[in-house]
Amino acid sequence: MVKVSDSLVANTKVYLEIVKQLREMISADNLKSGDKIPSERELSERLNVGRSSVREALRALELLGLIETRRGEGTFIRDFQGNQLVQLLGTFILQDEKAKHDVIETMYLIEMDCLRLVLNRADEKQLLKVKSLVEQNQLNDDEFFYQLIKLADNFLFSRIWLILKDYYNSVQPKNVVYNRNIILQLIEALIVKDEKWTFSIYRQLRNLSILSDKY
Amino acid sequence: MVKVSDSLVANTKVYLEIVKQLREMISADNLKSGDKIPSERELSERLNVGRSSVREALRALELLGLIETRRGEGTFIRDFQGNQLVQLLGTFILQDEKAKHDVIETMYLIEMDCLRLVLNRADEKQLLKVKSLVEQNQLNDDEFFYQLIKLADNFLFSRIWLILKDYYNSVQPKNVVYNRNIILQLIEALIVKDEKWTFSIYRQLRNLSILSDKY
DNA sequence: GAGATAGGTGTGGTCTGACCACTAAAAAAC
DNA sequence: GTTTTTTAGTGGTCAGACCACACCTATCTC
Question: Of A34, B68, B148, B160, which sits with the fewest C-beta atoms within 10 Å of its C-beta?
């Protein structure tokens, strides 16, 4: 009988090895969001490990938001959502002020990077689409920005931004402002590809006017 | 007998409740990095839950990097380090084709963000220190950039950059170029706080000359 | 035949008890 | 006093037992 743990020098815990195996399994079978993964009992049997070890791995991935389990049905790949995770991390690590500052600064800079990308990349059509959504009041501030970030067409930035946004909102209560006029101006500036105007409006939106020369 | 699970409408899983309890416990007792938390068996008894449930909670927190367990000793609060976590998330998230391009683009943009931060933040003294290290040939390209990133004084950026750099090096065969002259020019540009010059040199360093107007 | 009902099966959720491997501190031997 | 041995405590893992729930299917009722 060959156990997963035997394949290593045993300095790796079984549940970590299972996480690894799951990763490879997902990648090999090209499983996507919503797909089902084998049951706990089947995994336990296939990997020659105890079911409790399988559960430790699955629970950890669940807390991370990477999978979702439904009693009586099974375990499914999930579209990664950082919120829950971020909330947890936040209460654990975001105590010191410097960390909060870093989060906010990083988010602003990444947002501006995305604006640059949009300026160079997005076509007018897409921007007009966002504009119409805003005009119909279908987007709040966060949703609007997410649309912009997506237009930057960089998946990594989208992911990072989503996480940072959650941190940001948990640190910075607030912002029900939603000034539609400013947002519309920002879109306009992007459409005409006026970089200076774009960033001027952005700083206004984020209340960075005072710090305008800092970034 | 009152179980943790009974105190709720039971729509919350026990291990999540334990995570919550642990959080409160840590906060109440003001436990800090390095401190020990109760043993699995004690927690199991105190919270009236099975040890396996306690373990599910602890393993999840461990994968998150929030605690550390040492066999034979116990479980300890840990100084949070995101790298392992981000690495894990990365392998789960970065599977698509476009990912490589996104990684490179993201790294470049973050490096430029850091340059901006350094321009506004770093004092000459620190820069001269880096300069002397370069002159003594004590830094390779990556190490040099890491010094710069650190001068930007944003912990989050440092973390993200380190991860991206690993991906970058595995994607981009590689650049043993190490042109000391260009690096020294970059430092000089930063010292005199000449933004245009700085970015011009940077693009040269990263061979972005062709794309210069894209970013 | 259509619909409602009752089982059966598979799944996650949880607990218990049993080992093992390892560490550190106490006890014993010198 | 120093070394060795024992012992108690801790995490690591497994196996088996229930439970609650979702889904399917065969059966019953009309």
Answer: A34
Residue B42 DSSP SS3 = helix
The pLDDT mean for chain B works out to 79
A5 has pLDDT over 50: no
The dihedral built from the CA positions of residue A46, A50, A53 and A54, taken in this order, carries a sign that is positive
Those residues whose beta carbons lie under 7 A from strand D are A 3-5, 13-15, 44, 48-53, 56, 70-73; B 10, 39-42, 51-52, 55, 58, 69-75
User: Strand C nucleotides below 7 A of a protein CB?
Assistant: 10-18, 21-24
- What's the confidence (pLDDT) of residue A104? 84
Nearest neighbour of A99 by CB, restricted to B89, B155, B157: B155
> Per residue in B99-111, pLDDT tens?
677 878 888 998 9
Mean pLDDT across chain A: 79
Q: pLDDT at position A1, please?
A: 38
| Range A118-129 average pLDDT | 86
- Are B55 and A60 inside 8 Å of each other by CB? no
pLDDT > 90 in chain A, percent: 27
Mark yes or no for CB contact A106/B156 under 8 Å.
Answer: yes
Alpha carbon distance B180, B130 (integer Å):
12
Q: How far is A60 from chain B (nearest CA, A)?
A: 4
Going by C-alpha positions, the residue among B20, B86, B43, B18 that lies closest to residue A64 is B86
Largest CA distance in chain A: 68
Partnered with residue B69 across adjacent β-strands are B75
Classify domain B4-81 at the CATH class level.
Answer: mainly alpha
SS3 (DSSP) at B35: coil
Decide which of 1.20.120.530, 1.10.10.10, 2.60.40.1120, 3.40.50.720 is the CATH code for B94-205: 1.20.120.530
